[in-house]
Structures are given as structure tokens and as C-alpha cells.
């Protein structure tokens, strides 16, 4: 700080300039002025990944199915779902039951998954084949209707024709949480003891579809990947659930399935 004194009494006029330094205690170094803090930018809020999913469970004729079980398997995204179960750090599931109109609704927070998108939905009901479909990725709220086909078994030695298309179920294995990248139709076979042979051929020709089989008493158990075209297994007698599988995205196909027991 500079201070000037003017002595008008003196001729000529004398001007004395004094340089003053102060640290608040009468001398020493000056304290620098603190810079004005720059306002901190507020980070935008992370958008919620919570997904509201609803739909109906219908039979093959479009009739609503009350009391059908519906579940969703998905990778956890850090949120909370009600009701919620996370048996591992890799996946969670939420389940409910359809009302009298065949409607269901769940809410959950899926995380990203390299293999399963946002997860997959499954539904089942006594007397019907199950259905497994991808969780829609169109945003929330999302709608996914499920279609259950009436279970019709055939005795070993008979044949059946099934249609595999874009609405067919994912070839899903709930035991290993593996939906795969194929679409399937189920063929239920009542067999006695012996060597059970199952052969699947496209009605219009072309590559043979894969044959898979659920181990155990019902759908949702581990899947055994048997092979393309024709397979033979030793049967002890009972109900066997085979899946006729084609690659997802393939054109609709009519598949002729023939069985023999020896």
C-alpha cells in the first residue's frame, strides 16, 4: 500500500511517498487474498433403471390363465425389488401369480448382462408347457405377454408335427440360469422301458434341428443337449420332455418328430 504526504508549506512543493507493508501485526509480509472458489458443477442424477413389467398369460387360443406363475431372472442392478431373491451375486429373481384376468405385474432393477440382455421371463401352469421369453428392452413400463400351450403327450412309437417360430419359447434351463440362443417347442413322450429313439426333421427339408431334453420330472430342470437330427436314449419308463430347437431368428419351420421304442 502506498501513502503520499503533501507538504504545501515547503517551497517548492515536496511530495513524499511511503510504501507500507502489513501482515496485520504492524509489519512483515502481506497475506495474499484467497482466490474466489469456482462453483462445483452438480453431476446430473443417474436415471433410475427400475423396470415396471406387466402383461398377461394366455393359452394357445388367447384365453387368459388365472393362477399362472410368472417369474423374472435378471442380473442385479443395485436396486431393490419386492418380492426379491438374489441367490447369487450374478442373478436375482422376482416371482408373482396372475390374477383372475390372467394379468401380472412386477417391478425390479436389472443390471447389464453381456449374455442375457435385461433378463428373461418365464411362466408355467399345471397342464401346460412353459414359456420363456426375453425381458423387453424398450424401457419402462414394458409389456410382455406369455403364451402357454396345452401339454399333449404322445406314446413312444407315434409321431407329431410341431411349429417352431419367433413366438416359441427360449430353450431355457432354470437350473443353470441359461436361456441359450435358440427357440424351442416341447414334445412330451410317454415311454416304457427300452431304447427310445427320437428323430426330428424339417417338413420342408434343410438342416436338422437340435434335440434337447429336460432331466428330471418337469420343465425348468437341467437341459441335456443331445444333438441334431436323431438321438437314442435308454428309457426306464415314464414321461420324457424333449425340446425341438432352431436358432433364434430363423424362419418359422414345421418339424416332423418321429419316435420308436425297442
What does this structure look like?
This protein has 262 residues and is an all-beta fold. It has no helices and 18 strands. The strands form four sheets. Strands 11, 12, 13, 14, 15, 16, 17 and 18 form an eight-stranded mixed sheet that branches. A hairpin with an 8-residue loop joins strand 15 and strand 16. It is globular, with a radius of gyration of 36 Å. Mean pLDDT is 80; it is low at 5-32 and 42-47.
SSE pattern, N- to C-terminal? EEEEEEEEEEEEEEEEEE
Tell me the total number of β-strands. Answer: 18
- The proportion of residues forming helix, as a percent range, comes to under 10%
Low-confidence stretches: 5-32, 42-47
Over the alpha carbons, how many angstroms does the gyration radius reach?
Answer: 36 Å
* Number of contiguous helices: 0
Inertia-based shape: globular
The proportion of residues in beta strands is over 45%
Give the CA-CA distance, first to last residue: 111 Å
Structural class: mainly beta
Report mean pLDDT, rounded to a whole number: 80
Q: Biggest β-sheet: count, sense, barrel?
A: 8 strands, mixed
Short description:
The chain has strands spanning 2-7, 14-19, 51-59, 69-74, 92-97, 103-108, 120-124, 131-134, 142-143, 146-148, 153-155, 159-164, 169-170, 182-202, 210-214, 223-228, 230-247, 253-261. It has 262 residues and is an all-beta fold. Strands 11, 12, 13, 14, 15, 16, 17 and 18 form an eight-stranded mixed β-sheet that branches.
